Amino acid sequence: MKDEIVIRAAFPDDATTILALHEAAVRGERGAGRYDDAQIEAWARRHTPAEIRERIATRTFFIAERDTRAVAYAQLDVAAATVRSVYVAPQDSRKGVGRRLVEAMVATARASGLRELELDASLNAVPFYEALGFRTVGSHDHCVRGGPAMPCVHMARRLVADGAATE
């Protein structure tokens, strides 16, 4: 079906695609008033393809595709019970792609026996995560390698009801 979103596992060969999606999504925040140009530039160029390939080997990455074109990615660190990233290309934002990626990560986390997920949200993403059941735990500055500190919000979401056993 045309325009259908397909979520798939990412592979090491997806590293450059992931970096391009990351950079496009971050640069799409320019002018939103939450971060200045220096913060956005540092944030947009945080990683190398080799670093992404290393992370793909130890974390769970998802790619969202529309008509075989990658439009978003997400990164789940099961060992740390942490959502590390969700980035959607600007032209595909606000179309449910990010929600689908978070749903895939939540399902994976539950299947792995996790009871809670945490994340550090950029200021622009807080309402998105709140709509998906995450709550604010605190805030802090995230230090971007080689760049200025960026304020972010630490959030968490329970995956099972209190007292419930995981499956």
Class computed from helices, strands and strand pairing:
alpha+beta
Number of helices: 5
Instruction: Give me the CATH fold name.
Output: Aminopeptidase
CATH architecture designation = 3-Layer(aba) Sandwich
Structural shape: globular
Strand order of the largest sheet: 1-2-3-4-5-7-6
> How many domains?
1
What is the average per-residue confidence, as pLDDT, rounded to a whole number? Answer: 91
Secondary structure: helix percent: 25-40%
Name the CATH class: Alpha Beta
Notes on the structure:
This protein is of the alpha+beta class. The protein has one domain: Gcn5-related N-acetyltransferase (GNAT) (Aminopeptidase). 31% of the residues lie in helices and 32% in strands. It has five helices and seven strands, in the order βαααβββαβαββ. The protein has a seven-stranded mixed beta sheet, sandwiched between helices. Strand 6 and strand 7 form a beta hairpin. The longest helix is centred in the middle third of the chain and has 15 residues.
